[in-house]
């Protein structure tokens, strides 16, 4: 085992005006005893047709962030779908009068840049009695006057942006711990009310249900039972949840239980991780604050969660593009450092963080050209099949392994990482033997996803016997690495 402190490892562009297309070093300083041959080349949004990834651009409705300060950073991430909140209270400050200026500037700019806004219709508006609150954890509009005003707002919002926005969401985290008003039935009814309006105006709209704040299986069950009773499940394209856990791989059982409930009521409905990320500084605002985070552990968390979601057929949105300066009367009143771009306290963008570059490496490689393989541990023989692979690793540690192949060439890629603990600000590399049946490689290489470093796997460290490939002394640690055919990696 080789161990190194991460403060020796990474070098990041220090200013917002600098190049965001990758690391400014020739060779990452990781103790990987393999010949270094290059670095993953990032790809911009217009170079990628489609992928599993979305990007959080939330809290603009409350001015905790400023889209125009970070918009130049988005395209270099290669992500198309941007999650945003509509901001009823910001738009209608006087009853019956909508000022769209702020939102027009954002939506039009995003679409002109080739992005696809995923727009939420909440929160509430306190200018109406019973109009609900405008912050996380607030109650929904419940009075007849407020509900009528809310319906008018949704009509106006969808009518205005239906040519530019196809993806919609209703209310953020209705089961947030401080909010006891939003029962599953009230939330379901509110979702139906909103989705019915959207579909009437925009029949081809894709609407996300629920936006669950943390996985609560009873809440999910009651929510979908209500949708089923009202025969309204067909209104929704996907179901979203947010689940912040310190170990990004520790929520698989909860997700599995939620998926079982969704499948019972809505077979085949898409699961979407609508919001997930880790702080870069410990003790700051929002979820997961009680840990000594740094930029390295944030980056490890983010890309582990991204690749765990992808490996389990879950769409994934990263929270978020920039640090958010929470203020006002909401439950979070400190800077939320989950951004992958650092911000100043006046919302100015400062610089990309390590996670920004790590996410570039993920989005550059994992796009629509790959399809997932069914991965099975090597405990029994598997009959040859193009979509299945069996694998083994010579370790007792828990290692996540996900396999993919290129749809055209059929060449393969395997992602793996130690998943048994919270990411650490230290790299403990264990050199393991990796065996895979039904492999397909001509020239396998090793990729470290944090740094983007690409390394040769020397001929003496791998062999092929029949359809079984054996790779020896492969460094594995608590951040994703790849064993991949070189043709699937674009390098610079």
Automatic annotation (TrEMBL):
Domain of life: Bacteria
InterPro entries, A to Z: GH, Glycosyl_Hydrolase_39
GO MF annotation: an example: hydrolase activity, hydrolyzing O-glycosyl compounds
Protein name (database record): Beta-xylosidase
